[in-house]
Every structure is written in C-alpha cells, then in structure tokens.
Amino acid sequence: MLDAFMTAARRKLRPLGNESAVLRYATKHNWVDRIHHYVVRFASTNPAWRLHSLHIPHITSSTQSLAICSNAVATKRPPPLRPRFCNHPGIWKVDHPLNASLPAVRLWDHIDVRFQALRQLYPDLVLDVVLLSSQRLSATTGVLQSTYYNYEALEVVVLTRGRRCVDTDTATNSSSEQPTASTCTTFFIDDYRYESDRVQTNLVDWYATIALLRGCAQAYVWVRLLLLVHGAYVVAVAGKRTSESLLTTTMLILVKIPFEVVVYSSLLPVTGYVIALLLDSSFMDIFLDSFWATVGGSINIGLVSFLRSTAVQMRNVWLLSLLVSLAVFGVRRSRDYWGDGIPAVRGLAICFTSTLTVFGPYKKTTWRDTNITDLFEIADEGQVMDIIRSNPVGHYNISNYFFDDSAVMLMFCINAVVWLAVAFNIIEIGFPADIGWRHET
C-alpha cells in the first residue's frame, strides 16, 4: 500500500521528475476516539480540522542530504516548498538516530542522518523520499474568557523507498539511437514517524487564584464538618440518658444527617469550586486525555495514578451539585407547603453520577471514527498563520468549556441517572405493594 501511495504521489506531483514538489491540503474529519465521544455521537461527531502538506524532494544519485529546512536550500526554492515545521517558533529536537548517547538533534537533521545511513547501507539502490506532515491546531477558552489553551498536534511521516532499477532497451530499430528506460523493483520501504504535542496556556498566571479558591472552599467544608461534630457532641452530652458512650451517641447523631446537607448544601464552597473548575477545565481534559493515551493499543495503569486521575475527573461533582442546588431551590419556591418534608436530591446520587464520568476518556479502537467529511487543496502561502487568518473559524478548532469532553460526559450521565430513576419509579408503580417492589422513602 505504501509503495502504491508513493508511486501515485510522485506521478501526480512530479510528472517530469526533475524538481521538488509540494501539495498542501486541509481535511475535516470525525473524531470519535473516547467513550465520551462515542456516547454522544448521535448528537455530535466531534469534527476536527487538520492541515497537511505532502513533500517530494528531488533526489539524484549524488544526493547525500535532503536539507529540507536549511537556509541554503530555502534561498534556492520558494518558501512554500518548506514543510511547516521548518517555520515553527519552537525547535523540535529528537534523540540522535545512530547513537542515543549523543546530544539531541533537530528534526530535519534527524531526517538527514537517517537518509545518509540508508544511502550508505544500500549504495546500489535508488532512494525515493516522500514526507507527509500534519498539524491539528486548536484553541480553547474557559467560560470566564480569562484562561486560554492553545494546543498543537504535529505529526511527520517520512517514507523512504529503495528500488533496484535495471535499464531496458525500448528501441525497435537497431540502426537508430537507442533510448533506454528503467524497470524498477521495490526492495524496501522505511516508514519513520515523528509526533509532538505542544500546549500554550496562561494557567500558570492563574494558579494562585485557582489554588486559593479550592483551598478556601476545602477549608470551609472541613470547618463546617468540625463544627457539626462539635454540635452533635454537645447534643449528646446534654441528652445523655442511656449507657451508650458519648462517642457512639455522637456518631449516631451524625449518620442521621443527610450527606448532601453536610457537603453540598452551602453555596459558598460549591461556588468556589465551580469557578476554579471553569478556569482550568480545558487543561483538565488535556491531562485526562494524556493519562488514558495508549501505546500499541494497551495501557498500564497504577493504583496511585488512577486515583489521582479520578480525583481530577470528579471535580465536575461540584458543577453537578451547583446545578442540583439551583434546581431544588426552584422547585421549593414553587409552593410553601410540602407535607412531611421538602424535596431534595441525595448526595450519593450526585456522587454516583459524577463517578460515571471517570471512564469517559477511555479509548477503544473498535469505537473509533475518523472518517474524512471534507477535503480541499489550499494555496501555497508558506506560513501556517497566513492560512489560519484567511478563515480563522473554518480551519481552527475553537471551543469553550461548555463543549469540552468532561462537560458533555457529565450531561450524558445526568440524563442516564434521571432516566434510570424514572424507570424504577415506573416499575414501582406497576407492581402491587404486597410483591415487595414498593417501599416508603
């Protein structure tokens, strides 16, 4: 397949075969790769734009270096013929291909060293090179529009083909000059790939604010809990009429208090947690995606690292508790009297719903959908940002928190739990009480 691809690319871009060529194009494709993508695919296929460039350098029998990004080559050919990563503001370095103990080399030097090694290893073969680069540029902002996350995924594929060519006589008249043609047989294809992810964010500038919000909210919860324990102890001392110990009586009083009253009833800590979540939510998604990234289709997860990722993922429990508090407040305001109690949502239900989102970033190849939905050629404008500025919304993946993966998964889990509760209520209504399905709440 790679052999046919290289042949088709050379035939398309280099009909004369005596100069370098480049093809730039953009693709829009579906990106269904994780569970939270899969469960909402009926509503959104999570489209993504990518910029690509296909390069075929001109190689002769005396070529020892491709010199893809060298300044000397850049002065001899138009700037568009240089791959995009040559103009990248950051220098992409990788380990030395021949000796890992040597200092890291630049990407284009790494490509040259590998080409020279293949040239020395197969001196009697004709080498062809096709370079394919791909970029996925995205920008994400928080709801408060104060934090930003610019993300860039770079992929470079270098295909080197070695062919053994034999000259064949194509003339039918022996008395005329006899032009010759070559019949080539592919001997090997070397497929080498480079990948790099870059994140630019101002989250560091907001770290103190975010830490202060979460720290104050957490301190408020602990102080509230300690005061509650103290109040229960005072009540246990004042009303001690049995032989039970004060500790046992205090614990019995505490367990009768609903969990949601202790943790989620106060809007002050919940609001602090939610504001912090809105500031760093997108970076949280990037962290979880990198944690669940697989190598070769397998992932090795330790208990400590899994608990750490779970703690980060379940930060959305505070957003859920705020939504529940606002919904319950609206219901309670609808009338003054509710009989023997007032409506509420159990804290365990809130925690259970948030727990369902833990495995949202998990990926499975059988669910993957990367079908290309749009493709078009773009002009040879050289710099990446020249293309981006021409249509920033069309080619740049822009989003904000409300459309991030964790929020989408949270909304799905809320709907799932609500429908599950409705189903249980229908079952309870449909069965008589003497069967044992109905119970008092």
TrEMBL record:
Membrane-spanning intervals of the chain: 219-238, 259-279, 291-309, 316-332, 407-427
Domain of life: Eukaryota
Source organism of the structure: Phytophthora fragariae
Protein name: Uncharacterized protein
Keywords of this entry: Membrane, Transmembrane, Transmembrane helix
Lineage, highest ranks first: Eukaryota, Sar, Stramenopiles, Oomycota, Peronosporomycetes
